[in-house]
Amino acid sequence: MSSSTPGFDIRRIGGRIGAEIHGVDLSTEITETAGTTGPDPALVRELNAALLEHKALVFRGQHLDDAAQVRFASLFGELTTAHPTVPSVEGQPNILPVDGGEGIRANHWHTDVTFVRTPPKASTLRSLVVPPYGGNTLIANSAAAYQDLPEPLRELADKLWAVHTNDYDYAAPKNEAVAEHRKVFTSRRWKTAHPVVRVHPESGERGLFIGGFAQSLVGIGPADSRDLLRILQGYVTRPENIVRVAWQPGDLVLFDNRITQHYAPDDYGDLPRRLHRVTVAGDLPVGTDGRRSYAVEGDDAAHYTPADSADTADTADPAASAAA
Fold first, then answer.
1. pLDDT tops 50 at residue 319
2. Catalytic pick among 71, 105, 110, 258
3. Residue 320 scores a pLDDT above 50
4. 292 catalytic, yes or no?
5. Of these residues, 71, 262, 273, 292, which one is catalytic?
6. 294, 193 in Cβ contact below 8 A?
7. pLDDT at 322 over 50
8. At 52, phi and psi to the nearest 5?
9. Which pLDDT tens digit goes with each residue over 19-33?
């Protein structure tokens, strides 16, 4: 099924999430040319509307360079740096290398960088080297997952808050490279409380804001936290809520980090797989009761995302402060 806008064609690739965008050459559409001041604002609005509706957009065969990927991501807002702890591509402070070499693979469901107060609004991934089989990226619609919840469970989820952290009980590292990567990843530690149900700031949709960095529930013990999070996560990762992106060289994928999770299965052996990631700075998540995310442990992440320094007063649970 496909639809058209004045600027491009949209072809759905999943029942509940995902669309391919055809008819847009990003290498020219996002480059300033003589007599213009940049990309067409109408095109940017149309792409953003498509992102809100489909959650994940795939642009095939674009073959952008690093600078063009940065320009494209910048259409959707101010950028973060590459990562709060992991180094960027040399000379490219906004670009995170995603390299599956030496067993360094994020093969778990997650939303990018939810362990800080203001996780990214959107993520872009660009394929540089892809294996001949495997190495896909799965993206899940957390709004559809929320709608799937039975009403009693949905009412419970509306009230829950989860603590997200980058430092938790990982599996034993496979080798020294993985151990070193983990050491760098956790060289600074954050714990942040986010609403389990986040209200999307643009669409108003409610989605389950959990994933791999969500390790416990506020006010609930460890065992019950794990059980409840496992139940809720199971709705996110139902097959009907997932689109599988089979990479080809030169592809670019844009997904809404506020209402999706993603997973890169470790199913391509020793074959090389290399992507570059650029993320757009996000805002402070808001729950169904209007309360906003707050820091539990760790300093701010202003070195990573400009949004984190915008409201430094939100460093503690406002409800807890009022009760103190």
1. no
2. 110
3. no
4. no
5. 262
6. yes
7. no
8. -65, -40
9. 999 999 998 877 654
Catalytic residue among 276, 277, 283, 308: 277
Topology (CATH) of 2-309: Double-stranded beta-helix (3.60.130)
Give the pLDDT mean for 102-120. 85
Q: Is 308 exposed, middle or buried (0-12, 13-18, 19+ CB in 10 A)?
A: buried
Contact between 19 and 55 (Cβ < 8 Å): no
Reading the block at residue 156, the tokens are 């419970």
In the residue annotation, 262 being an active-site residue is answered as yes
Residue 252 has pLDDT above 70, yes or no: yes
Distance from C-alpha of 140 to C-alpha of 237, rounded to nearest angstrom: 6
Contact 297, 191 (CB under 8 A): yes
Residue with tokens 């829950």: 160
Q: Please give the mean pLDDT across all residues of the chain.
A: 90
User: Edge-to-edge strands of the sheet including 2-4?
Assistant: 2-4, 9-12, 19-22, 56-59, 252-256, 122-129, 274-280, 96-99
Give DSSP secondary structure letters for 218-271.
Answer: TTS-HHHHHHHHHHHHHHHT-GGGEEEE---TT-EEEEETTSEEEE----STT-
CA proximity to 298, closest of 160, 163, 109? 163
Spatial CB neighbours of 193, under 8 Å, sequence gap ≥ 6: 161, 162, 163, 164, 218, 293, 294, 295, 296, 317
Whether 277 sits among the annotated catalytic residues: the reply is yes
pLDDT bucket at 41, cuts 50 / 70 / 90: confident
Q: In what side-by-side order are the strands of the sheet with 137-141?
A: 242-245, 137-141, 260-263
Which of 112, 256, 308, 314 is labelled catalytic? 112
Residues 196, 285: Cα–Cα separation, whole Å: 10
pLDDT on residue 76: 96
Q: Could you read off the pLDDT of 125-144 as tens digits, one per residue?
A: 999 999 999 999 999 999 99
Dist. CA 190–CA 202, nearest whole Å: 27
Domain coordinates of the chain in residue numbers?
A: 2-309
Confidence of residue 311 (pLDDT cuts 50, 70, 90): low
